[in-house]
Amino acid sequence: MISVCKITTFFTNQNIFYTYFLCLLTFFCTFAPMKRLHLILYVVILLTISLSASAEEKNSSFPVKAWSWLKNYMYESTVKGINQDYIEVPKKEWTAELTTTINHSPLKLETEWNYDKINGTFTSHSDNGLTTAVGVAIAYRSYGIGFSKIVNGTGSNFSIGFSGSKYAINASIKSYESDSPEIKFDGTAWGEPFHSREKTRIDDPIKVRTFFIDGYYFFNGSKFSYLSAYSPSLIQRRSAGSLFVGAMYSHARVNFGSENDADMIIAMQGIERVKSNQWSVGAGYAYNWVPAKNLTVNCTVMPMLTLYNRNTVYRYDIKEIINEDFNRLDDEEYWIDDETSDESTGDLLKKYPLNKEKTPNRVRLNFDARVSLIYHWTNMFVRAYGQFNRFSFGGEDVKGRLIDWTIYASVGTRF
């Protein structure tokens, strides 16, 4: 039987550009929009390159030298400066995991109504409920990638990260949909106190997509390993902590539906979608507690000051819509007959262009907290962690808040 190493050796000997092509394809799969097929290709490609490089240690071709240099760089960046009395470096280079993720990302949006006949606050609560996603993750030393798919809803999670002894950089993309927002109104209508609260089914679901990238620098990288708490690439053997500084960029995009959900858009002051961009900096403390051999418990806390907080709001000018046909609000059938309301309001929206507004910068205080647990034995490991993020955004008549918390668990092996 021909071994895998012999097969990869054959291909490399036949065409020195083969491995180089795989390197380029790996890069493409990493940064292209992530699909399940891309993840499968990524795993196959990295394993093939590794096997090919191992089989061709004596080969002086550029791809083999490049891969050898890259492996050495990744190893050195992972272990440089660490105190191995506190941190162990496993001999196995690769890790693979089966993952499950439980997430809850409630979104709250408030809009102020100040009109002759209606005064008050409309509030929209939308979330994905408790969603469960399953997926896979693979890493070489401290360089990893993961993908999971929500199984009890619509959406997916993609993450990529790499770390050194004193730094860590992580990025993630999450998306979900909600077709049953809760709409609440508190105020007055036609001069009378009016309060309502109901869960509404909409034709086109609210779509939420978030992108986070964060980076940290740890001052005690020789004894404390952030990587050991959130990846099995290193193992913390003695308890240690570190002060750190960090920065985070977050982007959130919320689509509130289409003209089919015109009444929802009208209630939200004509908002059709919102884009939020934030840059935050902060300082905090992280601690790895080792209560027993092979067990590490981590707690990381960082308050953040959001220095850049700008929102782009796409909205219809509902003041003109209401001024044009305000007498329809006196018609009881407008409020009672949902079908008539959807159709007539949708027709009104089509008459007006979608305007683009940018809100002024607002400095805000946000918070990032994480807790993790990881246990090792032989070449196997199990780990779990929880993460909480809170982001606020808004303008004069619109205020929003996105809370994102995640519980992650996995079982994996080194090889």
Fold and architecture overview:
The protein is of the alpha+beta class. The chain has 9 helices and 19 strands. The protein has helices spanning 4-14, 17-31, 36-55, 62-79, 226-230, 262-267, 318-324, 332-336, 338-350, and strands spanning 87-88, 94-104, 107-114, 118-126, 131-140, 143-150, 155-163, 167-178, 182-189, 192-199, 206-218, 235-236, 240-255, 271-292, 295-315, 355-358, 364-377, 380-394, 398-414. Strands 2-5-6-7-8-11-13-14-15-17-18-19 form a 12-stranded antiparallel barrel. The chain has a two-stranded antiparallel ribbon with strand order 1-12. Helix 1 packs across helix 3 (36-55), helix 2 packs antiparallel against helix 3 and helix 3 packs across helix 4 (62-79). The two termini are 23 Å apart. The model is unreliable at 1-37 and 338-343 (pLDDT under 50).
What's the helix and strand layout?
Blueprint: H1 4-14, H2 17-31, H3 36-55, H4 62-79, E1 87-88, E2 94-104, E3 107-114, E4 118-126, E5 131-140, E6 143-150, E7 155-163, E8 167-178, E9 182-189, E10 192-199, E11 206-218, H5 226-230, E12 235-236, E13 240-255, H6 262-267, E14 271-292, E15 295-315, H7 318-324, H8 332-336, H9 338-350, E16 355-358, E17 364-377, E18 380-394, E19 398-414
Antiparallel strand pairs: 1-12, 2-5, 2-19, 3-4, 3-19, 4-9, 5-6, 6-7, 7-8, 8-11, 9-10, 11-13, 13-14, 14-15, 15-16, 15-17, 17-18, 18-19
Helix pairs in contact: 1-3, 2-3, 3-4
Strands ordered across the widest β-sheet? 2-5-6-7-8-11-13-14-15-17-18-19
Strand content: over 45%
Shape category: elongated
Q: Specify the helix fraction band.
A: 10-25%
**Structural class of the helix and strand makeup?**
alpha+beta
User: What is the terminal-to-terminal distance?
Assistant: 23 Å
How would you describe the oligomerization state of the chains in this entry?
A: single chain
The SSE order reads: HHHHEEEEEEEEEEEHEEHEEHHHEEEE
Sheet with the most strands, sense and barrel status: 12 strands, antiparallel, barrel
Low-confidence stretches: 1-37, 338-343
Rg to the nearest angstrom? 26 Å
Number of strands: 19
The total of helices stands at 9
Mean pLDDT equals 76
